[in-house]
Specification:
globular, 12 strands, disordered N terminus, seven-stranded antiparallel beta sheet
């Protein structure tokens, strides 16, 4: 335990002191939901596309975590379908799973999204069908809890486990990705490797995709070897080298 403390507490403290990410504090009703220009135009892009997005959450919560969602466009489709969990739907006694056609890269209430993963071309249509099936069988569709879950990141982790071909590495700021209930053991969110988690509050994860992670009270500390990176709460993932595969790419 002292080793874990000495490895992760000093950089975490530095992150808390120097973290400068801007989280906009506007009211939700006038916060931007405009597209960010990150998604290909579906009317001029015939190939199948999957994109996973993340954006800092609304208000003060954005300093700690992100909201994630998946957008898909089958081959020759002219629109994107967006899959996400919306917590306030629970207040209306509706399913928190939202499946709708919309711009995939809209700001999340003032916060700019980033692409966490993108897949195109061959084999993507088959993955899109699996994504849709997983989304419609999400076991917490009538439940939402900001911390430690189930929340929007729990939903994306559920889909990612069901579609391991995505090889999705959710960042440490995706609080809720490690929520498991009633199970304590499961595949890692990437679908590769394994994890132990007590309701997303305490756990450990080992995976060739995510690397090594410790979860304490929903906060993730860890490291990855390809590419070399450290994972910390608040700041997220910090890479120190490019992926090894890119060093040998020919194009």
């Amino acid at each position: 335990m002292k080793l874990v403390y000495s490895l992760f507490f000093p950089p975490f403290l530095l992150c808390m002191l120097f973290f400068t990410h801007s989280v906009h504090a506007q009211y939700w009703w006038n916060a931007s939901r405009e597209p960010a220009g990150l998604a290909p135009n579906p009317t001029t892009t015939p190939e199948a596309i999957i994109q996973v997005y993340g954006a800092r959450t609304f208000s003060w919560r954005g300093y700690f975590g992100i909201h994630t969602w998946i957008a898909v466009k089958p081959t020759q489709a002219k629109t994107y379908t967006v899959y996400e969990v919306i917590g306030w739907l629970q207040r209306r006694k509706l399913s928190v799973v939202s499946i709708h056609q919309n711009a995939p890269d809209r700001h999340w209430y003032g916060n700019l999204p980033e692409i966490l993963l993108e897949k195109r071309g061959g084999g993507v249509d088959a993955m899109i069908k699996k994504i849709d099936q997983a989304a419609r069988t999400y076991p917490y569709s009538d439940s939402y809890t900001i911390w430690p879950g189930p929340n929007s990141n729990t939903f994306i982790a559920w889909i990612s486990r069901a579609v391991p071909e995505l090889q999705l590495d959710l960042p440490p700021t995706a609080i809720g990705k490690d929520y498991l209930n009633p199970w304590f053991f499961s595949r890692a969110p990437s679908g590769s490797g394994y994890q132990f988690s007590l309701f997303g509050l305490l756990g450990i994860l080992v995976s060739p995709i995510e690397g090594f992670e410790l979860n304490f009270l929903g906060l993730t500390f860890g490291f990855d070897l390809d590419p070399l990176a450290i994972k910390l709460p608040v700041i997220g993932r910090k890479n120190f080298s490019p992926p090894a595969s890119s060093l040998y790419a020919l194009d």
